[in-house]
What does this fold into?
Amino acid sequence: MYKNIPTQHLRNPLHKRKGISVDVLRLDLMHPFISGNKWFKLKYHITAALREGKTGLLSFGGAFSNHLVAMAQACSDQGLRSAAFVRGEDDPKNHSLSLMREAGMQVMFVSRNDYKNKNLLASRFLDDHPDIYLVPEGGQSAEGIKGAAEILSYAKHDYTHVICAVGTGTTLAGIINASSNDSLVIGICVLKTKDESMNEWLEYLSTNTNKKNYCLSFKYHFGGYAKKDAELVTFMNRFFESENIPSDFVYTGKVFFAVEDMIKNGDFQEGAKILVIHTGGLQGNRSLPAGTLVF
Ligand SMILES: *Cc1c(COP(=O)(O)O)cnc(C)c1O
It folds into this structure.
């Protein structure tokens, strides 16, 4: 399933002048709605659900959740039902919700307050529907990490640096576990943190990975989760025009911006061979006003 994952070399002349090379692993090309990394995080949940004889999956998320859009589509492809508790209210203009419903997902809206008790909501739902399998929010689980660890098997293994967006950190944990010991894995955090030296991500990574060859960058959140500014949008358009790679404003736009900025700042030594993971997420751009992006 979804095996079209090419590696694309970036042409930016600055890279050659600095003696480094950058490749992008294009998980965004796997499927238009099954946002690259989300499939890997879902894969072993789906396997477990089928093994246990379940007929569908239940999960949670926000109204623009790439995770829920991917889950709805993946379930539909596998002949499974899907259901989700969605934080907030229905909005007919929200394309992510439309994609979930078009794929047959049962979408159940809950207030922000009730969403805090989502585990209670889920256990009540599962009492009534014992044939449904529960996937944690964002696919954050041991199964999610195991699936994400397979991402690197689609790339060569001689990179000095591997760079990826960090939301929950599940994808990065899998990548760290699968990385070679002499490479450095860099996570670009797309949410703001109060404490850069100790936070939930660092705790999560230290308990869920078996290596120390990673670091996190907290400089490129652009104000916080799903926040953006004109500089980011301009960069995303310019990046598309020069490299022909579309990015999303929540995750991958910030990652490609970070990579270019770190290169300009001289953060990589000469000879560095960098792999950037394009984790997909392009469906999220549909929430932007028409004409914002050139792609
Ligand atoms: C969800 C998502 C991420 C973050 O993945 P985590 O495993 O939660 O850290 C990165 N990129 C895209 C496009 C995503 O949709």
Remarks:
- The CA atoms of residues 25 and 277 lie 5 Å apart.
- The longest strand covers residues 81-87.
- The two ends are 26 Å apart (CA to CA).
- Residues 36-51 form the longest helix (16 residues).
